[in-house]
Amino acid sequence: MIPAAFDYLAPTSIEEALAALSSDADEVKVLAGGQSLIPVLRLRLAAPTLVVDLGRLPDLAGVRDDGGAILIGAMTTHDELTREPLVSEHATLLAKVAQTVADPQVRHRGTFGGALVHADPAGDFPAAALALDAEMTIVGPSGPRTVPAAEFFTDLFTTAVSEDEILTAVRVPKHTGWGSHYEKFHRSAQMWSIVGVAATVRLDGGTVVEVKVGLTNMASTAIRAAAVEQQLVGQPAAPEVIASAAERAADGTSPPTDVNGDADYRQHLAKVLTRRALITACGC
Amino acid sequence: MEATITLTVDGRAETVTVDTRTSLLDALRDRLGNTSPKKGCDHGQCGACTVLLDGRRMLSCLALAVAHDGADVVTARGLADGDRLHAIQEAFIDHDALQCGYCTPGQVCSAVGMLDEAAGGSPSHVTADLTAERGLGDLDDDEIRERMSGNLCRCGAYVNIVAAIREVVGTTVDAQATTAAR
How far apart are CA A256 and CA A268, in angstroms? Predict the structure, then answer.
């Protein structure tokens, strides 16, 4: 289908972009990589009267070292995340997650920031952002503000970014030397997660010192598997210990029922995939 | 709303006025008469519309033409040098890597883009060590399949597609080794 008619603007400065978002157009949509927005427009699930393309904004793409963290520009593509040495070294989980998103063609256009703001509960990056304690930098008419990942995803396809704001960068604390893994269950290589589990773990002499587990598609937003984390901290990183903790992965979840599976099937998957993700992340 | 954009398509500069809603695929096919990229699903699932945009493979159905003013687009048609086919195109013929042929222009563009990515050291989901040095020589069949996973072939010519790409990988690596030995 052809999208409903819209005006198009490609601002060349943040100020110009923010002014466009505050304009009196009926509905404004921000275009990042377009790999989710364009299908949404084509299905007429959204019919904005103005599309603001961030593709010509300078300085919104790329990864840089920021001391104890890496700073990822919102327009950095999934493909760039897989190739960027700073990401492989300090946030390995993100490089692994990026390789599982859709297919290579989509990864060349789709952006990290776009995927986060789209906040598809079946999308892979929100769970990873939770498991890395990422912080989002959001710019609006009154200046920049910072929102932790734990407060960023507010509901189905809804985030803390308001209609007159733009996500500009994501600050990811360095997880250098942490074990990590993303265990994704899907029907074919390009498809969305039926369930996904993002795990990061810091070990000291075989003991789990810190562990963070993010779940994809187990609620209306990505969520942390807090019960699993609490049970595992201070325990030895051993398969049977992990298996026992992973049994709590579905605690407090409210997954959807759809053509790919019932809610109780997803709760079963969450436990199995959490076990696999943690065993791989711990290397045990 | 309409906008006038300039694209370089298969080496030729083209200026066209498009509605802002026009996908790059529709601009290429319907406005510029280049029917090499195919419309399969038209929403980013099948890969038939794959082209190289500024050297990287992407889905032309998931791009607004207006957003790519000034871009360099290469379609499967532009990969050939006149009557001389690209090595990937020759290999697809030699290995019967198609049946109906509808997905082939997308497959071919994707394969060419994929070889560049692999030569540049890009990892894939099946790459074991993300930090190791990599090149074309590391492309085994699992890597080829994973890296070509964005292109569907409903005739099921996958086995021959992998064989065609494997052959080009082999001859390229051999040629590089010969050059290096000289």
Answer: 13
- Domain extent at residue B92: 87-177
Give how far B76 is from chain A: nearest CA, Å. 15
| Stated pTM of the model | 0.96
**B158 to B57, B105, B152: CA distances (angstroms):** 19, 14, 9
Count of the separate structural domains present in chain B = 2
* B63/A95 touch (CB, cutoff 8 Å), yes or no: no
In chain A, what residues touch B147 (CB-CB under 8 Å)?
Answer: 104
Chain A residues with CB-CB distance to B64 below 8 A: 8, 31, 34, 38, 51, 53
Contact A105 B47 (CB under 8 A): yes
ipTM: 0.95
Q: Chain A contacts of B130, Cβ < 8 Å?
A: 82, 88, 92, 95-96
Interchain proximity B117–A43, CB inside 8 Å: no
**Pair (B70, B114) in one structural domain:** no
- A 10 A CB-CB count for A61 gives 18
Q: Is A40 on the interface with B (CB under 8 A)?
A: no
Cα of A235 to nearest chain B Cα, Å: 28
Are residues B75 and B91 located together in one domain of the fold? no
- CATH number, domain of B97, equals 1.10.150.120
Q: What is the mean pLDDT of each run of 10 residues along chain A (284 residues)?
A: 95 97 92 97 95 95 97 98 96 97 97 98 98 98 97 98 97 98 91 96 97 98 98 98 98 96 97 98 96
Domains of chain A: 7-53 (3.30.43.10), 60-173 (3.30.465.10), 179-282 (3.30.390.50)
Query: A114 is written with which tokens?
Result: 């776009």
CA angle B101, B104, B110 (to 5 degrees): 170
- B151, closest residue in chain A (CA to CA): A103
DSSP reduced 3-state for A69: strand
**Contact (Cβ atoms closer than 8 angstroms) between residue A150 and residue A251:** no
Contacts of B57 in chain A (CB under 8 A): 104-105, 108
